[in-house]
Amino acid sequence: MKIQFERNHLRRLAAFLAAVTAFVVLAPAGFATDKPDLSSFPERNVILSTGDAPTVSVNGLEKNADERAYPASITKVLTGLVALEQGNMEDLVTISAHDVDLASANTKIGVKEGEVYKLGDLMYGMLLPSGNDAARAVAEQVGGSEEGFAALMNEKAQALGMTNSHFTNASGLHDDGMYTTARDLAILGAAAAQNEALCKILTTPNYTLQEQTKGRSVSVRNIDRLVNEPRPGEYEKVSALYPWCVGGKTGSTNAAGRTYMAMARYSGVTLVCVLLGDKVPTSGTKGTKYDKIIANRFLEAKNLFEYGYSYLFPLVNVRTLKDEGLPVAFEGAVQKGEETLSVPTMVEDVDAVVSMYLPARQALLEKDRIRAQISQPEVTVPIAAGAPAGEVSYFYEDRLLFTLPLVFQYGLEPDPTPSPAPILQVEKRPLPSPGETEVPVQEIQTEPETAAPPSIQLLWYVLLPLLLVSAVFVLCLMKRRKR
Questions:
Q1: Active-site entry in 49, 57, 63, 73
Q2: Which of the four, 112, 259, 316, 418, has the lowest number of CB atoms within 10 Å?
Q3: Cα separation of 71 and 260, whole Å?
């Protein structure tokens, strides 16, 4: 094996490009570098917290978080949570007169008294378009009555730790005796984010309810703009899609103003955003101007999420993490025939920029809390130094932090092929016929007899007669001189 660590200009350029790529790919969704100024938010009560510690704001992002306020239709998240835990989604629910006894200004999906729907269908009707008629039907089915269901809601709220909240109905319609706080709703959002069934409903863009007796269908649409685009209209509307959102719920009453709670999850970390009490007037506004006012809460939530993840996952150089204890060298497996060899590997570019969960950065000194998991395809010789060797994923407890490519530190060549041994030629003779004397096989000669080249033989045949003639000529001359 031979160590090869030459770095030319092309390799430096490749490392730079890899760092840029890692910066773009591995960083969280948004790069909101400036901390949001909550004093500029029209909402009176605001908080951004994590799912792990919902009562603690992220970097102090909270405003009047413990002041009592009205939740409006955010209440339906608690209704959904209780119904999923205590109800059967396949149960058939008959719509009562109380369910549809709502003022024309109240949001409803249009179910009719006497119709029958599955409880699971009514959950979609309650949470996607915020149907109050569907919420009442869900409450009556699970709690026997809306009052009975409200008791279940308060029990659940107390169990979650929502000590400054009280609920009197399942829909969120205004009642002076129903209140909560932004911090308590952050606790509710953290619990909701852990319920997969609830998050599935909250992130569904569109759904169709099926009436069970006459077959009438009711189509509903999700009005949460972090998970669905607004319905097209004659004027431009605000789009606020956020890929990491796992659910949210809007609300609006005259007393509560516009409210919104949303949950997001990135790299295993949940954020909860609560916005209460936006009372910017819309009277006299139409079209795009009106839409911007009612949709402002979605943009604010998206901005808070982007800042929160940028704060919790600060960008950092891998070389810096290496100096702090992050392992960047590992052993790789290479097949050489039937043998498996161990060849050192390393992170391809220690100058790559990644985003690392802040608590994990602080826990680097606790080596048992950061683990590396190697993923390597089958590799056979030959390999070159710097050849791809799979990838390494870093985890903080059970949270995936980031993944980096690995390369082999050494090259490895196959064993040289030995030269073939000389093959001895053996003269083959036919076997003798019966009665014949067997001719002995001549001894094998490894070195053939040396024979004079044909050119020398020809020269000898020419010179020999000339020499004889010359000798006779010389003898004749000598005899004449004697005479």
A1: 73
A2: 418
A3: 9
CATH topology of domain 29-312: Beta-lactamase (3.40.710)
Distance CA 144, CA 350 (A): 62
Question: 316-411: which CATH architecture?
Answer: Sandwich (2.60)
For the question of residue 76 being annotated catalytic, the response is: yes
Cα–Cα distance for residue pair 312/32, rounded to 1 Å: 12
**Among 172, 178, 187, 162, residue whose Cα is nearest residue 126:** 172
| In the chain, domain spans | 29-312, 316-411
Burial of residue 229 (CB within 10 Å: 0-12, 13-18, 19+) is middle
130 is catalytic: yes
Per-residue pLDDT tens digits for 224-252: 999 999 999 889 999 999 999 999 999 99
Q: Over the stretch 425-464, which tens digit does the pLDDT of each residue have?
A: 545 555 555 555 444 444 444 444 444 555 555 555 556 6
Q: Which residue has the tokens 């998206």?
A: 302
The encoded tokens of residue 353 equal 């920029």
392: its two tokens:
């390494």
Asked if 262 and 188 touch (Cβ cutoff 8 Å), the reply is no
Which residue in 317, 245, 309 sits closest to 33, CA to CA? Answer: 309
pTM of the model: 0.77
Among 49, 57, 63, 76, the active-site one is 76
User: Which of 49, 63, 118, 130 does the annotation list as catalytic?
Assistant: 130
d(CA 249, CA 110): 20
